[in-house]
Amino acid sequence: MRSLEELTRPNIWHLAPYSSARNEYSGHVARVFLDANENPYNKPFNRYPDPLQKELKERISKVKGVHPDCIFLGNGSDEAIDLPYRCFTRPGIDNVVAIEPTYGMYKVCADINDVEYRPVLLDDHFQMSANKLLDACDRNTKLIWICSPNNPTGNNMNREEIIRVLNEFDGLVIVDEAYSDFSAERSLRHELKEYPNLIVLQTFSKAWECAAIRLGMAFACKEIVDIYNKVKYPYNVNLLTQQQALEALKDPYEVDKWIKLLLQERRQLMENFRLLPICKKVYPTDANFFLAKMTDAQKIYDYLVREGIIVRNRSRISLCQDCLRITIGTKSENTELMAALRKY
Ligand SMILES: *Cc1c(COP(=O)(O)O)cnc(C)c1O
After folding, report:
1. Which residues pair with 198 in a beta bridge?
2. How many C-beta neighbours within 10 Å does residue 94 have?
3. Pocket perturbation via mutation, ligand 1, pick of 105, 180, 182 by most ligand atoms within 8 A of CB
4. What is the mean pLDDT of the chain?
5. SS3 helix, strand, coil % of the chain, rounded to 5?
6. 114, 142 Cβ separation under 8 angstroms
7. What is the whole-number distance in angstroms between the Cα of residue 215 and the centre of ligand 1?
8. What are the pLDDT digits (tens) for 113-167?
9. Cα 344 to ligand 1 centroid, rounded to whole Å
10. Which of 178, 232, 267, 292 is least enclosed by beta carbons within 10 angstroms?
11. Residues within 6 Å of ligand 1 by CB
12. Does pLDDT of 26 surpass 90?
């Protein structure tokens, strides 16, 4: 691996971060806060929230088995996807490599940051090849994006291939595990010590049923998290979000119950799709959605919209011609979808 100094944008490496009022006194017990120009009334919303979300990270640390120093929390995964561009890639010079098709935000953030984005096609089984990804890299490749389970295809990327990329790429490898709670595959966040170039993304938006609070997680070595903490907005995770996440974390086993239920529903819904004459193929999945190849995805999508049912039309995405992406809903939502499709 190239050193973190070599991988980091020179201006970021040398950045003197903003020091917020709430950072400077740390280590002491304080009673009177006259440092941040806040209004003393309207507790608790008058106060700036903890810029490093210490209490929340302690809780997440226990649930996820990752040291608090190796956790970054952001305004959704969106922030954790944008930050590596802003920290590591020089606009107009550096590039990133990614599996294709995959989640659209990696490319949007590359475009916003004026960084070349190099997509590398998956094979017919939606599997990645470490060789192909590595072949697409050059001296200016800073990041490789892997999403597993992948969106929109739903399947896990082959673990040996991911490990090969981690071992052989001398830049940073970001593995987006937004859907890993639905998969039996072990999360790569447990391998951080093994791979200093690994960044794992997870989120409160999917299995944790908290998309509205906007909370994303990045797990990485402390040195990378320290760089993120320098560059992020000082109060990037607001108090309401921190409180609501602590509430959700009170009963992590509740999440397992939802996951089990959704996986049962998924099996049923996929089964029903296979029996539809308008469905040509249902792809295997490790997530809370699946991809289905239809006879005419656009027409079926339009029909469903008229019926008040919204699925995702992925038919213009590479390798996904005539594919709809179906999120698993409640039993009654899934039943409604099937009733509409049988009438089509
Ligand atoms: C839904 C999703 C996310 C979650 O994004 P948030 O900003 O945390 O809501 C991240 N990555 C992928 C691949 C997703 O599909």
Report:
1. 173
2. 23
3. 105
4. 96
5. 40, 15, 45
6. no
7. 10
8. 999 999 999 999 999 999 999 999 999 999 999 999 999 999 999 999 999 999 9
9. 31
10. 267
11. 76-78, 103, 147, 151, 176, 178, 203, 205-206, 211, 216
12. no
